[in-house]
Amino acid sequence: MKQEQQGEKPYVVVIGGANIDIGGQAFEPLVLKDSNPGTISMKLGGVGRNIAHNMSLLGLHVCFITAFGEDVYAAKIASSCNELGIDSSPSMHVQHGFTSTYLFIEGKDGDMEAAIADMALYEQITPEFLQTREYLLQEAQVIVVDTNIPENSIAWIAKHCRTPIFVDPVSTTKAMKLQAVLGLIHTLKPNLLEAEILSGVKITDRVTLYQAVDVLLATGLQRVFISMGKQGVMAADHRGCKMLPCIKTTPVGMTGCGDAFMAALVWAYLNELELEESAKAGLAAASLCIEYPETVNPNLNQKHLKERANFTEYSVSTI
C-alpha cells in the first residue's frame, strides 16, 4: 500500500492469484486436432483478484499482493486494479516472468473440454518476499489468502501475523497446504470436497457434516463456512452452527460466487456481524454474482447487499 495511505484509512490485504483468463467456445461440436470456428474472450480472473474486486465494490480499502510478470497482461491487471481503487503497488514484478494465465476451450454447450493453467509465477511469493511486506500485513484489519501461493508462505503468514486471517482453499489439491496451520486461521471458506479433505471426514449426510465441522473447529479455527452449492451454506463457530439456504434468484453466470461470498464475509466481520448474519451477507453477495454473466457483478455494493440479505434494521458502520 502506498506509504501516504498507511495510517490514513483502515485497510485489508489480499494475497493470492491474479490471472488473465483466455477462453474459446466452439460454434459446433468440438473437433479435436482441428481448427474450430468459435469465439475467443479474454477476461481478468484469479481468486485473490476477484475477492479484492468484490471487496472494493463493498467499500473496503484493499491492498493486493500478487506476482506480476514482465508482460502486457501484468500492465492490464495493474491498470484495472488502479481503476477499481485497489492498491496493487506492494505486488512483486518478476523479471522475464509471465503473468499467470488460464487457457480453456469450451464446446458448443459451454462445458469446458480442456484447459491449461500456467500459474508457476506464484512460487515467487516466498516467505522472504512477504517479510519485506510484514509491516503492511501486521497493520491490516484482515488478511485474505488464497492457496495459489506456496505452502511455506501460507505457513509464514499464519505464524507471524497477528492480523485475523481468512482463507479460501481454492481446490482440493491446494487445500492440503492448510493442513498444518488450520488452528491459526480465523475464517475458512471451503466447499464440501475441500472440507472433506481438511477434516478427513467423508461427508455423506447431515451427521457427517457436523462431524467434519467439529473436527475443523477442534484445530482452533474460529469460523468455518462450508459452501454446499444449491443446498446453501453451513456456518459454524465455537458457539454453534447454522445451515442456511441459498437466496432464490435467476442464475445467469455460474462463476465467481465463492469469491463474492468471501468478500462479504470480510465486510461482515469488519461490521461486527454475528455468525448467521455473516453467512446471510455471503449468500446475498453470491446471489448477486450469479445474476451477472461475468465473474464479478459491478452492481454489488453495500446497499444492494443489505437489501438482498434482508438486513432491514442493520446500519453499516464507517469502515
TrEMBL record:
The keyword Transferase applies. Pfam families: PfkB. GO terms for molecular function: kinase activity. The keyword Cell inner membrane does not apply. PROSITE patterns: PFKB_KINASES_1 (PS00583). Keywords: Kinase, Transferase. It comes from the Bacteria. Residues 10-299 form the Carbohydrate kinase PfkB domain. This is Pseudouridine kinase. It comes from Propionispira arboris.
